[in-house]
């Protein structure tokens, strides 16, 4: 998981706005072009989807030699690999670890980043600019430079092979604060002033005014933080060393190194892929608009 | 995105101590996390490069010794070469695919959204999972070697060949990344004023001319942004190499981050690993400067 710089402002991917409508003739072109375009896109889609197809089909094969192209047929069909990988291997345990790592991190990142983002956007306090610029400067430092001292700190504190050791360092996500600050800054001050005049405490303003207003950015950011953690590899590899503390990614990589049969590896991969795929199907808009509007790294 | 002066202008009064206090309380949790797990480690990461820190052992100041060792280490140079070759191949290829697919799915037609969603799917897929399936794709007698054989190209397992292993990894990286650049470019394409292209069309510009002289200049900032992000990703390549080749055959795909991981977390030579981290940092800065001076020069 790496922080990235916020991009130049870009508009969301939407269907072309109305003002473009009359200009369709520019892009529409000839019938020949439309056929070429469809053909190229279909080739692209087949090449993109083929690995997913192979992953699913080969995971439902009985253990044995895999041949090409015969093995790409859906039969012989067997759930043997799933039985083994779920029964004999620790895949369910890894799934649980991944869920804890992802979900707790999402909640933590969203909470701390929205609190800090609110203060940076709407409050004045000493040291504000110095803090902000130090956040920005740190985005330049590659994650791998900070990873080693972070590991030393966690290991000195006894956090190796624990959930908190895995989760807590990832909560220092400066990119999340930037996005929150940017979003909250665009909200009119009057919204907060009114509540304050009514005698609401600052915490109350944050909980009942700020949080409901920033739902869109919470959803977008939440989706990406979840994705980063679900797919994260290097940090869980370092800090979750025992068999029981692996995540799905590090667990499957370890199965691969034990030379487990291909169908089992792929069954594990499917198990790891299904939740993110479901999330993608449901929250597609958040994924795609998140990239388009914020440039957040996928 | 840096809009601090605006806030200052709007409110003239100084913050009261109470207001500043509550604001600090809101920042405090993040600030602590940031200081302990980001700011501190970033500084320490550089400092550690000048020590011989090992877990549980005595730590001493060794000056430039780690860096001398790095310069004399053929593994470092080979890892640097692997990283550079991988980056130089994968970034342009992936951007080319992004640009192509962005242009193809640019207009609203039936299925355009579906294609975009399909092309973005690999971006949300873990490189570990991708790696597992691509091991099979590139295996001897697998789909890739058959396809290459049919085209009269080298038909052996690309992952087992010390020259072809990098192109194979580049292909996986392009597959996994192009959807991201595509979305960034699409967002920018929607903003290109239609009048510009219409004017060019009225002037009788060919499709290529319209692309070259109207669309491409408009895309420049977005292309620069994608180039920066993709370079960062490529320079730090690790996950898929770890899974697919383990750095092999014979270090032919052993990247800088892999070297850092091995030195730090297999041999626990954290001082030396930090020196490699510093080298990576320097490399990032140099690449960023080069990109700013070339691609980003108009900004």
TrEMBL record, chain A:
It is found in: Cell membrane. Residues 1-24 are annotated as: Disordered. Residues 95-283 form the ABC transmembrane type-1 domain. Gene3D superfamilies: MetI-like (1.10.3720.10). It is a multi-pass membrane protein. The keyword Ion transport does not apply. GO terms for cellular component: plasma membrane. It comes from the Bacteria. Belongs to the binding-protein-dependent transport system permease family. PANTHER family: ABC TRANSPORTER PERMEASE PROTEIN MG189-RELATED, ABC TRANSPORTER PERMEASE PROTEIN MG189-RELATED-RELATED. This is ABC transporter permease. It comes from Micromonospora deserti.
From TrEMBL, chain B:
Belongs to the binding-protein-dependent transport system permease family. PROSITE patterns: ABC_TM1. It is found in: Cell membrane. This is Sugar ABC transporter permease. Keywords: Cell membrane, Membrane, Transmembrane, Transmembrane helix, Transport. PANTHER family: ABC TRANSPORTER PERMEASE PROTEIN (PTHR30193), INNER MEMBRANE ABC TRANSPORTER PERMEASE PROTEIN YCJO (PTHR30193:SF37). GO terms for biological process: transmembrane transport. CDD domains: TM_PBP2. Signal peptide: none annotated. InterPro entries: ABC_transporter_permease (IPR051393), MetI-like (IPR000515), MetI-like_sf (IPR035906). Residues 80-291 form the ABC transmembrane type-1 domain. It comes from the Bacteria. GO terms for cellular component: plasma membrane. It is a multi-pass membrane protein. The chain crosses the membrane at residues 21-40, 79-105, 117-138, 158-180, 222-244, 270-290. It holds the Pfam family BPD_transp_1.
